[in-house]
Amino acid sequence: MSVFITGTDPGVGKTVFTIWLLTGLREKALRCAGYKRICCGHRHYAGRRMR
């Protein structure tokens, strides 16, 4: 399965939603990874790594 998350503007919550989604999937013991190819807008969450 593949999921592509997109939005129209910076600051709409794409990164926050992706972190939430990956956290939920990992809690269910599913293998998953996120990849942020382009970082525009606020970089507060961009460097956040999931463990």
Secondary-structure map:
Elements: H1 14-27
List keywords for this structure.
51 residues, mainly alpha
Describe this structure in words.
With 51 residues, the protein is mostly helical. The chain has one domain (1-51). It has one helix spanning 14-27. It is elongated, with a radius of gyration of 11 Å.
- Basic shape: elongated
Query: The biggest beta sheet, please?
Result: none
Estimate the strand proportion. under 5%
Following the backbone from N to C, one meets helices and strands in this order, namely H
Low-confidence stretches: none
Mean pLDDT, as a whole number?
79
Secondary structural class: mainly alpha
- Helices, by number, come to 1
The level of helicity is: 25-40%
- Cα distance, first to last residue? 21 Å
Number of strands: 0
**Domain unit count:** 1
State Rg: 11 Å
Short description:
With 51 residues, this protein is mainly α. Helix content is 27%, strand content 0%. It has one domain.
